[in-house]
TrEMBL record:
Residues 251-577 form the Penicillin-binding protein transpeptidase domain. Gene3D superfamilies: DD-peptidase/beta-lactamase superfamily, Penicillin-binding protein 2a (Domain 2). It comes from Hymenobacter elongatus. Belongs to the class-D beta-lactamase family. The keyword Iron-sulfur does not apply. This is beta-lactamase. It catalyses: a beta-lactam + H2O = a substituted beta-amino acid.
Amino acid sequence: MRTAYNRWKKSLLALLVGLAACSSPDQPTGTPTAQDVRIRYTARRVVLPDVPQRGRILDRHDSVLVATRPQFLLQLPGRPPLDTLALGLLLGWDSTTVRRRIAEALPYPAARPGYPVQLRLTKAEAERIRRDSSATVPRLTLTERQRRVYTTGAGAPVLGYLSAEAQPFFRQARRTGRGRFYRLRNGGVETYYNGLLNGHRGYLHPLLDAKGQQHGTWAKDTAFQQGQDLHLTLDAKLQAYAEKLLGGRKGYLVALDPRTGEILAYVSAPVYPAATLTAPDQAGVRAELLEHEDMPLLNRPAMLANPPGSVFKLVNAAVALQLGAISPATGFRCDQSLVSCVHDHPKPKSLTAGLKYSCNPYFYQVLRNVIDHVPDSLTQDTVAARHANLARWRRYARSFGLDSVLGADMPREAPGFLPTPAYYDKARRTRGWTYRSIYSLSIGQGEINLTGLQMANMAAIIANRGWYYPPHLVRGIGKNGPLPRFTVKRHTLIDSANFAALVPGMVAVLQRGGTADASSLADVGITVAGKTGTVENDEGDDHAAFVGFAPADNPKIAVAVYLENAGFGATAAAPCAVLVMEKYLRGSIAPKRKRWEKRIQNRARNGY
């Protein structure tokens, strides 16, 4: 009985729906229902004719770095052999330049004869081809098309590439073991802000009857949006200068404005020209970069996390001060039975002296006071106390933005690492591990790993006495400011007074007797606060590190430098950092440091 009733109910419902459809007026009132759309109207999507122009990329001083412009490409004839002498005379190139440009365009040195080669030309060179090529060098083909054009060679990992123009690079990369890795991590702001740079066309969504008359819309119309310009935080001149200091060496340099989190310079070395990954005549250069043992295409400041070495003593000192494990006046004996100390120095009678001399035994004892402290309630359980203290240390250290991504505006960012009690339980295969088995944390070695962005941000936090804005590369999108998350101030768990207690020791590092006294800028009236680091490396020469900011009393720039296999932080990393500080704050380098500057740039060119 119930089955028959349900069948009758469905039939009646279908009849009512049909009657409603037949009785609908020709001109409907209000928004058409879904039934109306299905029975009486056709949904269309109309593309408006205007095509958005991709936005430009400009530096912090509004110098155009990347824009869509005409690019002139010269197709060389495959056979018979090209008269390179005549081509050079036509273009105004010497024979060395002709051979080099052709070699750079070939995907591998032994490319087959007749392999198609395209060369980028300037507008003036293109005009010479149009006037004289038929008689001088026949069968040359000149084309002009709109492409992304780089006006600077600096800032390759920041600027990145338009994916559609990087397809030849992707194809080359897929043939190497590192292909997928590089494809995902080199896009820069071109990839990260692609939608905003591209803009979008306008779309209408009309409902049309059989006569083509419109009856409302089936979706909200989309307004035409021109591509937005990106105004970077980068200082193009400072970026180019910093790249000259690192050149072919392995490492990174990150400079921030600590007051805003804006990245002033961002160098991943070895460096390469910004247009390399998309230029049609750079296949040979790309092949070398993909296979190079130093991995120049690795975006080091964001993706490579390394032990920070002695610069991490700043974090340990701040946490120890906050937890009451030490005071600024605390002194410790330089007891080398605990850990070796490479510096010959007086007894560090205070935190300032400990930082000035970078005394390893001093900071061994600083962190021991944190980890081995046993509250009265846990007198009988030192293992539980040690676990709780390490967890608490990690919680305070993580508030610096460590062991997590900072959220910078780039395609990929590594989180780094801070060990947990559970990590050591597993690694040591016992819950009963002791401080002696993890003391390397006290000098920034062992299991700690930080990225270059985190190192620079750490310096900015100390400069600000405990707060930071997330590091970012874009300060303006069109006529608007940066993405909202970059305007939210973040605070650490450390009191400002405890950060202030670090600064005298950091200033002393660059004064007489400090580990980096040779890098002082006192002669030009700039007081630098910094910390050197020399990172032990079992596989070769030690790595050199430095973090700092200037001026010490009113910081305007914070810098982190990390040079792989370069030795001491004081002699390798600190000079690069202070030169960038001086260049930014003064606009030039004092004559006293010109010879120093030239020596560093020569080493950078030679890659050591």
